[in-house]
């Protein structure tokens, strides 16, 4: 019955509940993901980016005063970063500089206590170019709550170093007549393209230096770093060059996208970058103050994990040692109350 939910009213969809996709729903997603809807009119907080048209897969997530981005990958599931759904105050300082050689496995009680589970704190904004706090009256958008979180508990087990992937479930399915469209999840056998598109509309204290934060922006060509990743970066990341443009706080969780055969496909999840002040200094002074690349979770390694968690399975993945390793990461499922 859920397989026809996309075409039914929001009320009927809510009657049948959410959860992972059925095989029929997944088949529909694989046929239609990333394709633009016909005759649909498409109506900065990435530094150095351009104003974006409406990106139908882009989702802004807000939990009280914290902001992240995400990518719609099914009618009810949004791909984002673990650090967007967990309280990271327990993470080791400068944890990205090195991982734990002996991971500490947290108990379910500890994980639940670290998860953002208060429903009235969550808000997801889809189908819009505005930032949630600055949308004008009548500006097109869909606002929904979050009902469930699928997180990767190994994010904490390895000291908040790698494994930075999570999925949030919306309280209802996005309907066919609405603007948002799920993006495709990249198969494991696809190589990482040289150029990608990043999006975001982050909110931070640099607003007075960049007044165009209130709208969705994008970097049309995010060049992969010509140098190797930092030697202590985890293996499950894509490195990007952020000398003159890059993502900042509030852009976390956003997808790195490309369009094979004209289909919007998510290949990475924004995890961490260099200091925003340094990016701005680089822009203003044309200097190169920090050559540390930005890092995004490589979705190719987690396609098996995504399939296991929510039933979005592209069926074209090829297992390697790394994809099998990351695919075995535990899925921490918690209801938002």
From TrEMBL:
Residues 46-311 form the Peptidase S1 domain. GO terms for molecular function: serine-type endopeptidase activity. InterPro entries: DUF316 (IPR005514), Peptidase_S1_PA (IPR009003), Peptidase_S1_PA_chymotrypsin (IPR043504), Peptidase_S1A (IPR001314), Trypsin_dom (IPR001254), TRYPSIN_HIS (IPR018114). It comes from the Eukaryota. Keywords: Disulfide bond, Signal. GO terms for biological process: proteolysis. Residues 1-17 form the signal peptide. Coiled coil: none annotated. Pfam families: DUF316, Trypsin. PANTHER family: SERINE PROTEASE HEPSIN, TRANSMEMBRANE PROTEASE SERINE. This is Peptidase S1 domain-containing protein. It comes from Steinernema carpocapsae.
